[in-house]
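tool=predict chain=A
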Amino acid sequence: MMHVRNSGKAIVILEGRLLVIKHRDSEGDWYSLPGGGQDPGETITDALRRECLEELGVGVDVGPLRYIREYIGANHEFSREDAESHQVDFVFECRLLADPADARPSKPDPRQVGIAWLPLAILNTSRLYPMELARLLLNGIDPKAAVYLGDVN
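tool=predict ok
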């Protein structure tokens, strides 16, 4: 049975680069925003702080909500693996509380192979998920609005 999973995600931009979690599959490297699933009884911002500590090894100051994105796995290119997935990502603009250069993730994502800083200028040629995020970040974050992106990958 499919359950909806809430997830907090962090947009951290510093000196024209986006902080991402690096993954690898048979096609090569791909990237996602730091963050992850909300536990029962936990606020989405607390989940985001916890997940960033686990994946990055450093804390974040959670800023404004910028995007809400749904991912219904059966509707996308990874439907063979993710047909039962339905996730709602709450994407916040965040600030690092320390430099992750020497940090060690305490509980990295099972598919995580590292942390990377992607230059904003190459986001549209990188395998960044959700792909819609590259276009949005290249156009600049609208500081006045949170945007519902719908079911995108």
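Residues 4-151 form a domain with the Nucleoside Triphosphate Pyrophosphohydrolase fold (CATH 3.90.79.10). The mean pLDDT is 88.
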